[in-house]
Amino acid sequence: MFTKNHTIGDVLDHPLGHDLIRRILIFTGGQHRWLANPLARRIPLSWIPRLSLGKADGEFIEALLQLLNSHPEIPPEPKGPLRPAWWKEAVFYQIYPRSFKDSDGDGVGDLRGVLEQLDYLQDLGVDAIWLSPVYDSPMEDNGYDIRNYRQIHEDFGTMSDFEALLDEVHLRGMRLIMDLVVNHTSDEHPWFQAALKDPASPYRDYYFFRSEPNNWTSYFGDRAWSQLSEQGEWVLHLFSPKQMDLNWENPAMRRDIAAMVRSWLDRGIDGFRLDVINYISKVPGLPPGNRTIGDLTGYTGVEHYFYGPRLHEYLHELHEAAFAPACAFSVGETPGIGRQAAKLLTAPARRELDMIFSFDHLENPGKSRFEEYRYDLNELKGHFIEWLEDYDGSWMSLFYENHDNRRMISKVDPDPSVRVVLAKLLGLIQMTLKGTPFLYQGQELGLVDSSFGHWADLRDVESLNLFEQWRGEMGDDAAFQKVLAGSRDHARIPMPWTGGPNGGFSSQEPWIALDERNQSYHAEGQLKDPDSVLSFYRDLIRLRREHAVLRYGDITFTDRTAKNVFCYVRQNGRETLHIQCNLSNQEIPRPQPGEGWVRLAGNYPDLPQTRLRPYEAGIWLES
Ligand code: TEU
Fold first, then answer.
1. Active site residue 389
2. What atom of ligand 1 comes closest to residue 402's alpha carbon?
3. What angle do CA 427, 19, 93 make, to 5 degrees?
4. How far is residue 8's CA from residue 41's CA, in Å, rounded to a whole number?
5. Could you confirm whether 275 is annotated as catalytic?
6. Could you report the per-residue pLDDT of 175-191, keeping only the tens digit for each?
């Protein structure tokens, strides 16, 4: 048991403690090298309140101790040789169906639209599709608020449309996973409606009804509780007031979820991406959130649910009840989870999840999502080196974008003159590291953040709620700019297929505007251009398929401490490939001359000599 007499070094030597301190450094912008300082390691936890001038107070230390003591497990050592699996070899492609392709002219993407574009995806070379939610929903959070898990929302089509899509995906030798949103349901879900109608209903305990709220805050602004009526009870929602958190302590609720998961797997889908799945276990009693942690993270109470006491138990139970019998794949979305906890969630022997999405690499140290910043690719380099050199028993997901994050090109360098080489650099890194690449729709086109002109152009519940909250404090213009710095809507504009009306996405005005700049990067034009970003992604995916060394080969990082240089070697006894990247918009000396190497792919037409040009990247065959 950890106590205040333990030292920072003791905490760092604990897997979860290591993750927590790494996370604190990310939030504060502190330097990682501090972790190796022998003096710092000898500081007892009891000194921290005084040393931090009260910022990290006694309550903070108590919250840390509670987290550490509720997770004593140590990640298992990797056992035996790497086990091949389709999901380790696949390139995934995430589709946000609302913005992918509209087949019936209502301005909203749908399942038939996805079906229409399967040839495009097959030509691109992706092996598996992750489909964001298409279930029946009031669409408060664009489908991440599910009203009926077993019905397709009318905007997206019918169950027979879904079955037709799944059949066509499988006929092409591709696979399809769906989004499993079971941390919460919509407040219009029958379970919640039954709980509202009758306090004695068994469904009342499927949610968190309390006579008094605690101080937890929501991800979408304001508190994480809503009061049902003037004197009525309060109910917990970590997200919008229309997304009610499920009480996973209730075994009947867990059985209902497992049955629903099995029903989808029985339809033949190949697995799920599990939405904020690390939030499902809350600390009993829902204790108040620590003020310092709330200030640091922006979300009061997060320490009591981001890695709760029964998380592993619930995941293992769901794995055994639903995923294992169907040999189904699972990737958990786990915001806040670090590398050591990730090992405990994905170690094969623990039979919980196959993979997770960690977001450490998408944070910018010391900055919140809604502060303007330029993402430094040296952060990405450090993240991948740290994880890939220590994650052997598990398998890494490799991604930069999804429907919740801004476009990576815009975060790194918005200069239009470097967009193509930068897009290709990012693709080349993603397709040559060791792990499973997850492309997000439009990344293969080199799409950038959208140029929204007015806050009324935004659609995302998070963006609109935060705008309303901030406009009162700072005025409309400043609030709009602050929201734009982190708005999820940048990733949710319609896919540009052609140069025609609405980018060929729909025959009607889309539910959200497609800006001219991104429309100009449309797929039709890039398919005809051998030097386009799209053609380069297609070539990279083909290379990854043709060279097994890029899937299962060993990876060795060279030039580790050289700024702006990212070089690594992939080897498997049959082939040796060298990857050389310049992470900056300045020329740098070429790390190795590469005598006798043959370039398999590069983002400049001519070969580099002794220097690497801005954002230059290349894959070189040594033997
Ligand atoms: O996102 C959860 C999550 O990662 C949040 O911390 C994320 O940052 C969110 O976008 C708020 O900023 C998942 C889904 O990907 C997201 O689209 C949903 O809105 C959310 O869960 C609730 O289901």
1. no
2. 15
3. 25
4. 5
5. yes
6. 999 999 999 999 999 99
